[in-house]
Write a structure and sequence with these properties.
Distance between the termini: 27 Å
Number of domains: 3
Strand order of the largest sheet: 4-1-3-2-5
Number of helices: 11
CATH superfamily of the largest domain: Rhodanese-like domain
Bound molecules: zinc ion
Order of helices and strands: HEHEEHEEEHEHEEHEHEHEEEEEHHH
Number of strands: 16
Structural class: alpha/beta
Length: 337
């Protein structure tokens, strides 16, 4: 499903989002895989372009392309989308838009990375899984037949929300991936079983669908635009819980105000919970789901032991977990990305 004209597509989406919305900020999520000779130059041009804009972002560029997320003043979102789309290398870039009331990223980060999705492994992207539009994905979920649905996100993303009938496919490192492939091959017919793969915005599937095909699994399909686009078009159909996002919101409905069946459970008492917190013990910083009762009972900590640790943040109900991590604790490699 490629748009005939990227500019038309993004403008239409933008206008649709703005109608009837009083939100002053817009969250943009996008990626574009393309060979970039000089990603550092793109970083410089981005930084220059952003000088006059009200934007906070996490944007990574590499020789493989761009992967970005940002919150930007709504009246400036189109300015950026048009600017990026007008660059020949990023022609056709597709944006996903969500309204919000304030910045959801702690700062403006634009930098070069070796890989857009950290894996530490070269991947040939020549043969990727076939794209399924959100509607095609829904139909594939509903169809009878030999199929398996794989979630290629992190386990903490999975815990708060995922597709009905999906399985978590652990692939945070290449070692995890290799192990998961061995297990997968025991369960499926590598030639016949339809493998339906999804992630938040689509970029992980570009990579992992190609890797699965290289492993001899033939029928690999990927949800184009990820869960974000699916929620826009197909709402909560077959989706359970919330969508984890790597910004201050942490977990959002996949479709505006429409909430899906809660599947998250409080780390302490196992009752239904959809709010994530970082342990108030800064040297622990564990990300966990917690109900309001246990949050107070444990003073924002993941375990009793953490309450008496040396560096415990003041307990506050309205903290912003990712921002707190930036402010109070050193992030370990690979976290929050
Ligand atoms: Zn609880
Ligand atoms: Zn802890």
């Amino acid at each position: 499903m490629q748009p005939s004209s990227p500019t038309q597509c993004t403008i239409a989406a933008f206008k649709q989002k703005q109608t009837g919305s009083q939100n002053s900020y817009t969250v943009l999520a996008y990626y574009h895989l393309t060979a970039l000779d000089d990603p550092q130059n793109e970083v410089r041009e981005h930084k220059k372009f952003f000088q006059t804009l009200d934007v906070k972002a996490r944007i990574y560029l590499s020789t493989q392309g761009i992967n970005g997320q940002m919150s930007i003043a709504s009246d400036q979102a189109k300015t950026y989308m048009d600017w990026l789309s007008s660059k020949p290398a990023f022609y056709g870039v597709e944006f996903k838009l969500q309204p919000c009331n304030e910045h959801v990223f702690p700062r403006l980060t634009v930098k070069v990375r070796k890989e857009l999705v950290a894996l530490g492994q070269q991947v040939s992207m020549d043969e990727r899984g076939e794209y399924l539009s959100p509607k095609e994905w829904r139909c594939a979920l509903e169809a009878e037949g030999d199929k398996i649905v794989l979630d290629v996100r992190n386990d903490y993303e999975w815990k708060v929300g995922h597709f009905e009938g999906a399985e978590l496919f652990s692939c945070q490192t290449f070692k995890d991936f290799t192990h998961s492939v061995v297990e997968l091959k025991k369960k499926i017919d590598a030639k016949k079983t339809k493998v339906l793969m999804y992630c938040t915005g689509g970029i992980r599937c570009e990579l992992f669908s190609a890797l699965l095909k290289q492993e001899g699994i033939d029928q690999v399909y990927q949800l184009h635009g990820g869960v974000i686009r699916y929620g826009e078009e197909e709402k909560t159909k077959h989706w359970l819980g919330k969508l984890f996002v790597f910004d201050d919101r942490l977990a959002v409905n996949v479709s505006g105000d429409e909430s899906a069946q809660v599947i998250g459970k409080c780390h302490h008492c196992q009752t239904a919970a959809e709010s994530y917190y970082n342990c108030a013990n800064m040297d622990c910083n564990e990300l966990f789901l917690c109900c309001p009762t246990c949050l107070a009972a444990f003073q924002g900590c993941c375990q009793k032991k953490c309450e008496c640790a040396a560096r415990v943040r003041p307990y506050e109900l309205s903290h912003k977990p990712f921002r707190r991590r930036y402010h109070y604790a050193k992030m370990t490699k690979g976290e929050g990305e």
